[in-house]
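Interim report, section 4.2 (structural modelling).
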Amino acid sequence: MTPDRRSLPFDTQVRLAVYDHFLDTGRPPSPSELAASVAASQEDVRAALSRLHDAHMLAIHPESGEIIMANPFSGVPTAFRVEVGDRVWWANCIWDSFGLAAMLNADTRIETSCPCCGDALSIEVQNGALVKGEGIIHFAIPAKHWWDNIIFT
Amino acid sequence: MLLFRSEEHIDRWCARWNQPRGETLTLEQGLGLGVWYTDRLHSDWRRKSPDEAEAFFAGLGLTSPFWSLG
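Predicted structure of the assembly:
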């Protein structure tokens, strides 16, 4: 951990360490990996993750406490594969796929498929602009209810 | 938030899975929504307030009650 991060609130340190791990590996950190990266106990890290979950800053599994999403990253493979060069991450939805492109500020390829017919749909973003893509985005749930069940949303 | 080949495919999927027909966006609007995450890696990032979120949506032309957080 960089020295300047040690001056941040503990929950912020944990949140940033989660994102660092996603960026580096494409997957969420385990509690032990997270504890090592912020030099804290697993108990303290789990408590921080629970607070971040309650604040809608990420989502953890209700029983295992494992990180299942830190938007725009998904903790598990999804129908939204996001590629930057030879790096690959999984996004939670099409919004988060575009979110990864914006967050990384990099030329990005999004690979997904139509849920109805299964046809592959590819999108490319270069220099912040859409250069390839087809399809229509559908939001089923009104905004005020997104966090009622964020996994379904 | 899924990507479909066409409006017809959205209708068919919603009927098949008994899901509500919500709102549709263009890919350009989706690209604009992505900006939501630009500051997510910053140490001082915080969640947008409902008013800030609604203003962000409005900037993309998303002004119907569907996008209301009130």
